[in-house]
Write a structure and sequence with these properties.
Number of helices: 9
CATH topology: Metallo-beta-lactamase, Chain A
Number of strands: 14
Radius of gyration: 22 Å
Structural class: alpha/beta
Distance between the termini: 85 Å
Largest sheet: 7 strands, mixed
Number of domains: 1
Helix content: 25-40%
CATH superfamily: Ribonuclease Z/Hydroxyacylglutathione hydrolase-like
Order of helices and strands: HHEEEEHEHHEHEEEEEHEHHEE
Shape: globular
Strand order of the largest sheet: 1-2-3-4-5-6-7
CATH class: Alpha Beta
Length: 324
């Protein structure tokens, strides 16, 4: 072997520790460290990215919705799934021909790690402005759910997001030709927010449909949390029920739920990937069905709370409040 070949070999070997160190640091990115959950594998299962309609694309994983909206002025991303979902989301964005650096806004539905865990890394990598409701923003900045969250004590922390812009209920966000409206839908979390916009097939704004990215409306809660009310808060049931009823009235041609399987969007995604026609996502009844399904779950939750209160000999001390 010529002397210059040996020198190149030694130089390459000398670089190996540095290369391995860089790779190790990249692999140990604190913002994408996996969050353990019994549902993580199911949520993070592979999903082919697909165009839902017009300028709206699905770039999430199999069990957690993440949506990309293309505009002439840049991209809008909704939700960030798990920290361990970030690599797949990035790959999906690139597979569709877009660049993560062109994301201008990242909107959040709910500050639970399964929908927000990847936002810190995606915001860092894109330079995008994160937007959430005031209570959602508070939880994102803290990197944990709020104390008043129905699942407080049962939800793991997530990478905190330092710079979060707050958006009021009904406030709009504009980028290029796109206008997205924030719809506060508290109940599943105190800061839950659904997002609505109009998606069109082309620059001429033809074949436009109303799209709703719906936050979870499920009344899932820790065993010691009472929607009916206790010493910590008054009865939350009427407000949560109004949220569901208002959600049912939204202009809604297409619904994408935060968890695809909560609205049948998992089945629709599979059909869309296969090219099924007409577009399976177009369903003017979808938001009403989603709200009605969750209102039934709320009724079941309230019945369960009442039964437990009765068994424990609890009595109502004030309208809408159950106390020991």
């Amino acid at each position: 072997m010529p002397p210059f070949a040996f020198s190149k070999l030694f130089a390459a070997l000398a670089m190996l520790p540095l290369s391995c160190s860089v790779l190790a640091q990249a692999a140990d990115d604190p913002l994408t460290r996996p969050i353990a959950s019994p549902y993580a594998e199911q949520w993070n299962r592979p999903q082919q990215p697909v165009r839902i309609h017009g300028d709206t694309y699905y770039v999430g994983v199999g069990g957690l919705s993440v949506v990309l909206i293309h505009t002439q002025a840049g991209l809008v991303l909704i939700d960030g799934a798990l920290p361990q979902s970030v690599a797949a989301i990035r790959a999906h964005i690139e597979e569709l021909g877009f660049r993560i650096e062109d994301i201008k806004f990242i909107l959040n539905t709910e500050a639970h790690f399964d929908h927000s865990g990847g936002i810190a890394a995606l915001a860092r990598d894109s330079g995008a402005q994160v937007v959430a409701s005031p209570l959602g923003a508070q939880a994102l900045r803290a990197g944990r759910v709020l104390d008043e969250d129905p699942q407080a004590g049962e939800i793991d922390p997530m990478p905190a997001v330092e710079n979060v812009r707050e958006i009021a209920d009904g406030e709009t966000l504009s980028l290029g030709e796109l206008t997205v409206t924030a719809r506060h839908t508290p109940g599943h979390t105190p800061g839950s927010t659904s997002w609505t916009w109009v998606s069109c097939e082309d620059e001429a704004r033809s074949d436009c449909l109303n799209v709703v990215f719906g936050a979870s409306l499920t009344p899932v809660a820790a065993d010691d949390f009472h929607y009916l009310g206790d010493e910590r808060h008054a009865d939350l049931t009427p407000a949560f029920r109004r949220v569901m009823q208002d959600f049912a009235k939204l202009p809604c041609d297409i619904l994408i739920s935060a968890h695809p399987d909560h609205s049948g969007a998992d089945r629709k995604l599979a059909q869309r990937v296969m090219g099924v026609s007409p577009n399976p996502f177009v369903d003017a009844q979808a938001c009403r069905d989603y709200a009605a399904k969750n209102e039934v779950k709320l009724d079941a939750r309230i019945a369960k709370e009442k039964a437990k209160a009765s068994e424990a000999g609890q009595v109502s001390q004030a309208p809408g409040a159950i106390r020991q």
